[in-house]
Structures are given as structure tokens and as C-alpha cells.
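Field notebook, page 338. I keep forgetting to write these up properly, so this time I am using the form the group agreed on. The chain and the ligand, dinuclear copper ion, are recorded exactly as supplied. Prediction of the bound pose follows.
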Amino acid sequence: MKGRFISACGVSVFLAGCSGLQSSQSVVNPEGLQAARIDHLFWLMFWVCTIAFVITIAALSRAVLRKRETPVENFRPVDRAEATKTRVVAVAIAITVLSLFGLLVSSILTGKAIASLHPQNPLTIEVVGHQWWWEIRYPNSDASKTVITANEIHVPVGTPVVMNSTSRDVIHSFWAPNIHGKRDLIPGYQTALWFQADKEGTYRGQCAEFCGHQHAHMAFFLVAETPEKFNAWLQQQRTSAKDPQDAAAQKGQQFFLSHTCVMCHTVRGTIAGSNVGPDLTHLASRQTIAAGTLPNNPGNLGGWIINSQSIKPGNRMPPNQMNSDDLQSLLTYLETLK
Ligand code: CUA
């Protein structure tokens, strides 16, 4: 009940900040095997510490409020009552040591249980941390079938996923608390993590390692869906962008390909092939832009293109001056990248 309450609060706080997208980000509402084990350990520690706290405060209050039985001038350490108190303190210390040892053992067992789960036929994905967004890859032995997207990870429910991760710049930490604990993404070093989502849903995750100015705006969404939906999504993401049919979108595409956009972004099927910023081949299929900072709609996208520095200061995308006609056609083009 308590878990539901805390998680409900978390969800409502988040929804207030990002309307239109239903998601959950909660440590105490696990939807994956490992998150469930971490949740058990959390509640064990919570209750042991709560009981210890209550007993300590009760004993302290009693000591403070009680009148002294023996006047100080008559105090003798060999007093029988003193000997009893010494025994009580010794027992309390023994219980404390045993409790701490018990927590240590449970913590080690939880860590071992999480690490010892080895998946059969896992789905392999790659996550690369950037200041301040997530590059997501679904590698394939046929390079033309490799999917590259950003800030939105789709996985099939009930299927183990192996996530190989690294960072392009500084240390980031991948954390989707409904599904698993944290995993650092370290430049020049590959770390692996496996997880499994057991229930359909959209789970919010975020960077959990301070990584600079916009660390707080480095979120992602983990979309757990049925294997059928996931496969349909993957097939769609594998396709190259189609050339637009209507005049406004064609004009937007021309603008995109003849301006600085191509220096940082890829749209597969066009000459744009840079990987400094997120791959935009299926930009319109994503629910948010700027690593979960804003819902993906033409208004937000327009504001982001013109001056993303006013939204997420310090990010790598420079301001772009253009007239409103060009912006409208550019947005029309980007909307076709489904
Ligand atoms: Cu990336 Cu904090």
C-alpha cells in the first residue's frame, strides 16, 4: 500500500511536469525481477532501521525524563542496579551487531542473486551516454538492419535484455528504478547489464550520476510492450526515411539537407549521416524530445530548433536563425519522419 502511495505521488509529480505521457518511475513499484529483489532488500532495511530508531528514541527519552535514583555523591560503579544496566547495554550492542551483520548478509545475497541470473536467447541492445542524451542501438549482424534511436528504449515483456553500455564523454549512470538498479556508463570502457521487464508499461529512467549542467534533464523512457508490438516497432525503425510527398515537406527536406542540421544528425535514406547528435530517421515516432525534457510536438520542436539553449542551456545544439516559412516547412518535414 505504502509503495503504491509513494509511486502514485511520483507519477503525479512527473505528469504535472510532462503532460500527456503516462509513465512510472518508482523504486518501490518493481516491474522486473531484479527490481523486485532490490525492493525486498529496501523494505527489510527500512523496517529494521525504523524499529532500531524507535527503540533508540524511546530509551533516550526515558533516560532524559527519568529522575536520577542515586544521588551523584553516593554513586558507586559496583552498585547492583548498575551491573544490570551494563548487561542491558551489552545485550543491546550484541543485537545491533547481529542486525547489521544480518543486513550485510542480505545485501550480499541480493547482489549475488541479481548477478547470477543468466539469460537464454537475450535481446542485445547498446546504450551510449552523451551529455545529455542517450543513444540507443539495436545491433544486427547485417549493418543495414541496425536500429539507432535516442532516449526511448523499446523492449518486449518477459524477454531478457542484455544492455552493453559505454559513454562518449563523461560518466553517466543508467537507472530505470522500476526495472533494475543503476549501472554506470564509463567512457572508454564497456559495462554490461541484463534486465527483464515483466509487465507492459512505460517506465521513466534517468541519469543517476552527476554529469554536468543538464544532468537533471537526462531522462529516457523504457517502453515494455508485447513481443508482437515490439517486433512491429523494430521493423518500422529499421526502414529508411521515405522521401516526402507534399510540397511543404519537400521544401523542409531541402532546407534540412542544405543547412547545418546535416553536420550533426542522421536521417537514413538521405545524405545526412553525422552522429554527433541524435539520429532523426524516426524522430516523429518518439514521445519526447531533448532526453525526456519536452513532449514531442511541433510547438516544442520549433522552439528547440530556434533556440534550444533557452530550454536546456549548455546542450550541444546551437541556435538556428531562420524565417517562419522555413521553420514551418522544416517542422512539416520532421513530422513525416515517423
Ligand atoms: Cu548523465 Cu547525469
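OBSERVATIONS:
- The two ends are 40 Å apart (CA to CA).
- The CA atoms of residues 174 and 183 lie 5 Å apart.
FOLLOW-UP: compare against the apo run.
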